[in-house]
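Quick one:
INPUT:
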């Protein structure tokens, strides 16, 4: 049953966030089997399958643990701004992913 739920969650992430940058990484540590282990400076975060952790030091970056030490790193896509425009600050830095991806656009 957990596997079915996991694939449903992963599938919904790909469908809903097709414009996001997603990478699969190994966050495993033999001292913590079946967990994603994140070293966030002064502490260690242990995630179970299906749990997510927002990296506050990076703009709109979340790690979603898919199980067995593997996790998906979700970041905003690298799309180009409209012609003669540029992206500036993030509008909702503290919002949940992907709402935190919204950025101010300034045009000439």
């Amino acid at each position: 049953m957990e596997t079915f739920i996991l694939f449903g969650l992963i599938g919904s992430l790909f469908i809903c966030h097709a414009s996001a940058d997603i990478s699969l990484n190994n966050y495993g540590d033999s001292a913590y089997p079946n967990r994603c282990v994140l070293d966030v400076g002064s502490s260690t975060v242990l995630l179970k399958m299906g749990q997510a952790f927002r990296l506050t030091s990076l703009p709109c970056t979340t790690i979603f643990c898919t199980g067995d030490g593997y996790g998906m790193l979700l970041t905003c896509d690298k799309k180009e701004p409209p012609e003669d425009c540029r992206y500036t600050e993030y509008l909702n830095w503290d919002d949940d992913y992907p709402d935190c991806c919204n950025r101010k656009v300034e045009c000439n």
